[in-house]
Amino acid sequence: MLGSSGHCPAHQILGRSPEGSQYTLMNSDHPSREELLSFLNGKLDAAQANAVSAHFQHCKTCYEQYAKMAAAAMLAKMQEIQEQNEAWTCSDPFWGPPYPLAAMTPPRTEEEIRSWETEHKLRLPAELSRALSTQNGGYVGGTELVICPLQEFQLLSAPKWDDAFRFDQIVAERDKLLYIGFEGQMPASIVLNYSAAAEPSVLYLWHDLGGELRQEADSFDALLKSR
User: Fold this and answer.
1) What is the tens place of the pLDDT at every residue in 72-122?
2) I want to staple 207 with a disulfide (CB 3.0 to 4.6 A). Which of 38, 68, 179, 187 is the partner?
3) pTM of the model
4) Which among 132, 125, 139 has a CA at the least distance from the CA of 111?
């Protein structure tokens, strides 16, 4: 528990490494600024990262310091992305503004797209595949649809999606559900559903409804036409 000052006693930041040995922070009371920066940038080993994470559970002061550092780092990263993307141009009318969450990467070649499809045993909709060959992600022109870069497409069978669905909704064949982007003004992820046919339908995963999957369109082309 936190003390009256919002800090935790030193013995509460001790933990156990995967091998079972104790580890502690460099500073016996609180993580240093250098440790917080290293934690933010993923440069601590597992034992050190676990120690910092455990410390946050008991020390509001250190967590708030870390949160401010993380927010500042995110703002700086977004400004960097914006500056890099301002110079990006694409003549394909399919695309609008560049992908907002990462610096633009070169369009995918047909060979790269076919290789991705072979690896994942899925065939992307023809228009999506064609568009990725001219720009690797971004807003779809004239809509709020955001398509991720190809390297960020992800099957919903990945562990990060384990807690994304409504507790009372049975989601079968998650290895045939493919996350490809999101709707900019809605709390919804765009998911291609390959469970019924080779040409996927489109589902929306509604995060504001506790992770409910709903049918949005019969195909990717139908989704585009509806917008």
Assistant:
1) 887 777 677 667 666 677 889 999 888 877 777 889 999 999 999 999 999
2) 187
3) 0.63
4) 132
